[in-house]
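Re: that chain you flagged

S.,

Sorry for the slow reply, it's been a week of failed gels. I finally had a moment to sit down with the sequence you sent. For the record, here it is as I used it:
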Amino acid sequence: MAATVVDVRAHDHLEDTNGRQVRLYPGDVVVGAFGNRYATDYYEGYLPTGPVAHLLTAGGVVGQVASAHVRRGEPTVLEVLGSLVDRSGRSLSLDEFAMAVPLPARAELGTFVVVGSSMGAGKTTTVASLVRGWSRAGLRVGAGKVTGSGSGKDRWMYQDAGAAEIVDFLDFGMASTFGYPPQRLRATMLGIRDELVGRGASVVVLEIADGLLQEETQALAADLVGFADGVVLAVADALGAVAGVEIMADLGAPVRAVSGLVTASPLASREAAAATGLPVLSPEELIAGGALELLSGAAVPA
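Prediction finished late last night. Pasting the structure tokens below so you have them in one place:
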């Protein structure tokens, strides 16, 4: 869809096709995609019901804000001009640009999934640290984000850390995954893994957005049994680690380590380790060797 910027507020920039942050001004005409957003630290948003809409993400997801965290300002206001169309006048959808379903494949050294206790718990940093640790050892790493709202930020972090291949939910036709049926999200998780392996990744790490109390995240976490060779739980504090490990244990998912913001505090890290019986690894520790230790039993190059 195309829209005119009416009032620039919380989001004062928009990512262009190359990922550059372009400053917004009233009167600018922008192109985005309708979608929902579930972000406990930012906006809860849904498809707009009229011509007035809000910019939900810097990546161009457009909807209508229903609630916001108290730290966030009012959303940037847009006036919807209409849908983008092809030469025949038919409205375009991101679904039409989704990649073909790849052939089933399994990663030689395993598929690892990072889940978190909440938004902002350090999931993306944990994924980037795993990618860095494996890529420094000479492994071809594939990284992907299974759920979330469209923005280039996470993709760039994976790339900067050394991921050889990157695929996410946008490649499967969704600007934002909040509100999609669980079957679609499960198929996307499988498809991302299969595509990364098909491109030559020997080890894969996937990130599931939001926290374990979010409905779609919990549904995907229940599907990790038999899919993930290991789960790394990113949390903000020791209590989050205890609750997260218990939730994952009830689902039968194999949590191998804890990471995230909790590791900023050595004392909190020791609390989490004592309470869960799991290694608590900081980003630096994952890069320095912890990521490789998670590949126990795999034939890793010396």
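What I noticed first: The chain is about 30% helix and 25% strand.

Talk soon,
D.
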